[in-house]
Structures are given as C-alpha cells and as structure tokens.
Amino acid sequence: METVALPTASSSAPLALRPLSRAGRPVSLFDLTLEELESRLLAQGEPAFRARQLWHGIYGDLCDGYDAVTTLPLPLRTALADDLPFGTLATVREVATDDGETVKTLYRTFDGQFVETVLMLYPDRATVCVSCQVGCAVGCAFCATGLGGLTRNLTTGEMVEQVVGAARRAAALGRPLTNLVMMGMGEPLHNYAATMKLVGILNDRRGLGFGARRITISTSGVVPRIDALADEPYQVNLAVSLHAPTDDLRTRLVPLNSRYPIAELMAACDRYVAKTGRRISFEYALMAGINDGDDVAQDLGELLRGRLCHVNVIPLNPVDVLPYERPDPAGIERFAGIVRAADIPTTVRYSRGVAIAAACGQLRAEQSAAS
Ligand code: SF4
Asked: How far is the CA of 192 from the centre of ligand 1 (A)?
C-alpha cells in the first residue's frame, strides 16, 4: 500500500475573500454551466469566446489552475483568480493499491469537512466513484458514512471537481476517464438538484462530453425522486441499493425502508422502467448471517423475477466499528447461484481496494478520528 500526502489546493487565493453563494458557500468555476460562465464573463466586458476557451481549458485540457489556461490573456487569468475560485477542494491524502489500479483521494472542503473519491482502473474503462454529501441521513446499518448522520450536501462544484480531479489522475496514467458512479458518500437523490446540474455539466459535449449512459446514479430508495429521475432528459443509469428482499430485514439495514417500503420501491422501479426502457441495477451488499441465507436468496429471486434488472451482489467490505462480516467465498457463490436460478442476471462484484479502506466513508472516518 502506498500513501501519498499531497498538500494541494486548486487555487492560491484565499477562499474567504471570494463571493459566496446564498447558502454561504464559495461559488467555484466548477459550479457553472458554460452559459453561466459566458454570462459572467460578458458582464465583465469579456467576449463570450473567452468562456469557451476557459471551458476547454478545464474540461478539454484538464488544466489544474488558471495559470495553465494559457489561451486566456494574463490579466484575465489574474482577474478570474481574484473573483472565481478555480476549485474549492484541497487534497489531504491519496492512497493507492499496490497495483495502482485503485486510488482513493481524501479531500478537505472549504469549511473543513472531509469527502472521498475513488478512481478505479479496469482493462476496458476507468471509473470514478463520487461523493455527493458530507455524511448521509439514510444511516444504513453497515455503512461508516451514515454513522454520524448528514452534515451537508455537497455543491455541484464540489462534485464536478472530484470528477475532474479523477480525470486528471487517469490522464496522468494515460487513461481517459470513461465512467462515473454516484456511489460514494451520501444519497444522491437527497441532493437532487445539484446532482442533476452535475450531470448536465459533465454531459455537455463542449466540455467533458461524458455520455449520460456512462453515469450511474445510486439510491437507497427515495421513491419520489426515482419518479423525477425518470422524467429527466438524461439517459443515466439507475442503481437501487436493495440489500434485502423483505421489509423487516430491509428496514433494519436501510432505515429509509420504513418510509418507502419495498412494495412502493418496486412500483417506482416499474414506473421507471416503463417510462425509460432502461434496466435497473439492484445492489446487494452481502453480509454473513444477516442477508445471505438460501431463503433470503429465494425471496430476492421471487421479488425480482420478470423485472428488467440486473443484480450486483457485493460482498461487504467490513468496517472495524460495525459488527458485519463478509460471507466466505462458497457462501457468496451459493447466494448468487440461487438468485440466478430465478432467471435474474446476477454478478458478484468485489469492491476495489479493501486494503486501502475503500469502503464508503472509511478514510473520512479515519481522518476525522485523527483530527
Ligand atoms: S450506504 Fe449510502 S445511503 Fe446508506 S448510509 Fe451509506 S452513504 Fe448513505
């Protein structure tokens, strides 16, 4: 395991001097759509093409600061650096697996919070897993992030900056960033507007041009927002963190289930599929002696039989402070086999980077304990 401490911030000017949003958070370059950036520069007497040059600099050339956007005149770069932070996240730690194929980055936000991003390199793709909140209100029983509840939503800019940071990291390794999963800290559908603006910025062909089909938004089951997502113009993928096929068990593991029980959740998923024609992924964190029994696998198969879906069985990454364990390999395969026998396409996916605390919220929890 390699641990690298990198004392970097994207911009040198103090954030305290910068304009704040109505929520009291600094607005950064990564918060803005191209149209918003054009309006801002036009208001400063700059031609619109300067916005497009800057946009290409950050999303095309993956510049890491205004100084690197050399297509802009120096006085404009200086003025922008005084007016609009290039970014607001500072890298605290980067931890990579020995093979370098999984890199976890811990960021400090402008207000001293910690968030995590994971870059995963596969032979055919490079995927970033982005956090959308500091903490999480859902409080899943097996998740380190949910332990302290929700502190705040991340801004669009804080999420876009995670993606661009991962794109730079991948580019340095000679790889394009190809996929985005909103499966880091937080519940994306509890931060809906900022998440959808993120999708719009990333999807813009004049910038990163990230195809919506390469973006997966996960949810623990926020039913009204699943309906809203089905009405969005973007063809993003939906992953539902199911983890149990019955209400008793699911409410114990995912407390939000008491508000949106399985029947309501499944009805929302059916409406989503009917409206979009897109297959849903059901995520299933497998825990020894909790939700891995043969009878539970049969119930899961019955629940999902006939639905346009795929199941990802994810053997749990154990967390020191929580009493949940990963089943043994034979138990994992037996569970997946029973679900498959119900004609449900099922894949066992091992989370990347167990050795580097890559389970959701672990690195942040370590940092918070040390601070
Ligand atoms: S698993 Fe996801 S939804 Fe559940 S508490 Fe953790 S971050 Fe929140």
From this structure: 15
